[in-house]
């Protein structure tokens, strides 16, 4: 009994001790053990998803998130064995770092690493700049660096960096992220579609097990969607090159070019260039959608369409423009050729062909002076005053005054009719002309056509109609014919092409200096051209708008010529002809064949099933010669080569000529490209050791 008593007593005391210890742990030592737990478990660690890519309409990557790294060294990890290994391989490591990062010499890397080793730093920056994933992997292969970070000490800090593989192409439209990516996107497509692109954060907790942290996923991150943009990289490149060349030529300050697909409103290219302080041109703002400027003569098309639609005029209606100057309520209205005596009496078609200010303003003032609201209502019917509600932010809203608004004077109507006293962004002007090309259907411009996840389309952005019919079919037919003639026999000839027909309208306007008006200091000009092509079945519409200081200023010669280059190059890029059309099936195609090694030539011709007639017997030896085309086959002839004499290589390609001459110990110097047209040492000349022969090549 006594024995059981002691057992029970002992168990009771142990139980009391456990309870007491638990109480001490729970209350007295609570903070201590909480700190220990925090060291071993980290809750709610945010895991960032991968941001979606922006892909061009032709399948090229335009914006993507790529990792960048900073690399560090922990000189106390794995010591002292690691330090001995580091000293042993120091020269090899530094030479390797120099190969990866050529801007620093191996000696500089050695001095830098030795300095960190002396300090015993645990987080010593090896290279001052962020490096790419490829550079990081190359550095990781170096001795010591290729060890586990706890043993070797080499470790990295990863960053997610947004990259644009095509550099400046459509950079402002694509948009940017803040340097601190946690702040999100700043502008462009990146901002407008940020919700789709950024995905959703995940949550993990980290738990220390056997001296290693394990990441345990609680909520997995959801990567962002990829966006398929409407931008075509090839067309964007064409537009940027054509525009920048002209900006440099005329010393312009701002240039815009936008190319749009007529039926869908898809923006295939958008270029916004501003002159920097260094004289170069860069994308700084999205001028195409934000610039609030008086459009000038491109607006005359809308004015004439209102009068056509109201039945006041026809294309043959005549106006006496006199000597090119007409007083309008105390202010002179001038045509561009007023100093040459003006255009006299001309019809409506000719008014737009020569962009007559007097003709256009006279028509609008004559029929709408007593009721200017009717003219404004006509513009509104065509939706030229409506904001576009684009997919990206920053668009300007057209400013077209009505007669009940402040500052609407007697002179407002005639000057409004020629594109002054109104403000319309270039994109809105283009949308209006695109509607003319699209049989009167005005569609909303768009920059993104779909969102994609894991190769599947998750959301589409269909074409949206702003106005199903901007005017009657009769007015459309009339304005189509007029705009065609503006390019083919008017001031817009530089915008035309010999390959296909173009329609459109030029614009040249002085740029107001705000409160100072147009007469203060040097006058700045806006030159523009807006149109579409091909005229018979329009596929693309385009606007080119350029701001420049001083004269000369010509919408046709400056903006029109840029439009012409863009149109021809886009048309050629878009042209798809069946190869069968290139071959006359009734004839035998015999190719042109260079001189060279005849056995190889015969082998190639046989593989291509091209008839050939060798005039030699090879016997397994090299046969050098020439070829010429007969009506139904290629004749192959040998060229006798004397061992110690310079051979003739006329007609050979560079590769064969160099091989043959160098096999005889002659040094070769080449000029030009194509076939050999002349050689500096005549064939049959005895070879001298080490001599050099000069070969001139030409493609003609």
UniProtKB/TrEMBL annotation:
GO terms for cellular component: plasma membrane. This is Transpeptidase family protein. Its main location: membrane. Residues 640-699 form the PASTA domain. Keywords: Carboxypeptidase, Hydrolase, Membrane, Protease. It is found in: Membrane. It comes from Jilunia laotingensis. GO terms for molecular function: carboxypeptidase activity; penicillin binding. Pfam families: PASTA, PBP_dimer, Transpeptidase. The keyword Protease applies. Coiled coil: none annotated.
């Amino acid at each position: 009994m006594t024995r059981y008593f002691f057992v029970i007593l002992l168990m009771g005391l142990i139980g009391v001790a456990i309870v007491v210890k638990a109480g001490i742990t729970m209350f007295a030592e609570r903070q201590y053990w909480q700190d220990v737990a925090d060291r071993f478990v980290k809750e709610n660690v945010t895991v960032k998803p991968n941001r979606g890519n922006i892909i061009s309409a032709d399948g090229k990557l335009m914006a993507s998130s790529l990792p960048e790294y900073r690399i560090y060294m922990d000189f106390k990890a794995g010591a002292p064995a690691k330090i001995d290994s580091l000293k042993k391989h120091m020269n090899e490591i530094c030479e390797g770092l120099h190969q990866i990062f050529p801007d620093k010499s191996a000696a500089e890397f050695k001095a830098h690493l030795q300095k960190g080793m002396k300090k015993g730093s645990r987080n010593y920056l090896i290279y001052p700049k962020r490096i790419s994933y490829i550079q990081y992997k190359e550095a990781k292969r170096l001795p010591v660096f290729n060890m586990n970070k706890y043993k070797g000490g080499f470790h990295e800090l990863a960053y997610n960096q947004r990259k644009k593989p095509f550099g400046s192409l459509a950079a402002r439209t694509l948009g940017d992220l803040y340097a601190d990516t946690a702040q999100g996107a700043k502008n462009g497509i990146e901002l407008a579609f940020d919700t789709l692109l950024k995905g959703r954060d995940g949550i993990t907790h980290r738990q220390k097990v056997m001296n290693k942290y394990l990441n345990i996923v609680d909520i997995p991150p959801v990567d962002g969607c990829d966006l398929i943009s409407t931008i075509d990289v090839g067309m964007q490149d064409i537009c940027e090159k054509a525009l920048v060349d002209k900006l440099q030529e005329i010393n312009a300050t701002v240039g815009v070019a936008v190319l749009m697909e007529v039926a869908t409103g898809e923006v295939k290219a958008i270029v916004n260039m501003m002159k920097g302080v260094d004289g170069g041109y860069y994308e700084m703002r999205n001028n195409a959608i934000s610039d609030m400027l008086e459009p000038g003569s491109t607006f005359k098309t809308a004015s004439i369409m209102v009068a056509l639609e109201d039945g006041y005029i026809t294309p043959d209606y005549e106006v006496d423009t006199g000597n090119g100057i007409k007083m309008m309520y105390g202010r002179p209205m001038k045509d561009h050729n007023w100093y040459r005596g003006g255009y006299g009496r001309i019809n409506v078609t000719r008014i737009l062909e020569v962009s007559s200010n007097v003709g256009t303003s006279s028509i609008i003032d004559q029929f709408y002076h007593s009721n200017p609201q009717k003219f404004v209502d006509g513009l509104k019917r065509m939706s030229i005053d409506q904001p576009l509600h684009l997919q990206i932010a920053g668009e300007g809203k057209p400013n077209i005054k009505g007669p009940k608004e402040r500052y609407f004077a007697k002179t407002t109507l005639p000057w409004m009719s020629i594109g002054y006293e109104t403000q319309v962004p270039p994109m809105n002007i283009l949308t209006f002309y695109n509607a003319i090309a699209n049989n009167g259907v005005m569609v909303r411009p768009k920059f993104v056509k779909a969102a994609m996840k894991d190769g599947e389309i998750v959301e589409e952005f269909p074409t949206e109609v702003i106005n199903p019919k901007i005017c009657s079919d009769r007015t459309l037919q009339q304005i189509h014919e007029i705009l065609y003639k503006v390019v083919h026999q008017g001031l817009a000839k530089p915008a035309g092409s010999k390959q296909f027909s173009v329609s459109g309208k030029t614009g040249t306007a002085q740029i107001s200096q705000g409160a100072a008006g147009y007469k203060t200091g040097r006058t700045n000009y806006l030159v523009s051209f807006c149109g579409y092509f091909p005229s018979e079945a329009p596929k693309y519409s385009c606007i080119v708008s350029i701001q420049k200081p001083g004269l000369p200023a010509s919408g046709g010669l400056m903006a029109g010529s840029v439009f012409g280059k863009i149109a021809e190059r886009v048309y050629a890029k878009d042209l798809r002809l069946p190869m069968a059309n290139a071959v006359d099936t009734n004839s035998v195609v015999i190719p042109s064949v260079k001189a060279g090694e005849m056995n190889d030539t015969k082998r190639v011709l046989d593989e291509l099933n091209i008839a050939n007639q060798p005039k030699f017997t090879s016997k397994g030896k090299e046969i050098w010669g020439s070829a010429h085309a007969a009506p139904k086959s290629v004749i192959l002839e040998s060229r006798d080569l004397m061992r110690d004499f310079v051979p003739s290589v006329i007609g050979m390609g560079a590769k064969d000529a160099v091989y043959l001459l160098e096999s005889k110990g002659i040094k070769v110097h080449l000029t030009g490209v194509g076939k050999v047209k002349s050689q500096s040492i005549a064939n049959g000349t005895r070879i001298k050791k080490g001599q050099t022969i000069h070969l001139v090549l030409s493609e003609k």
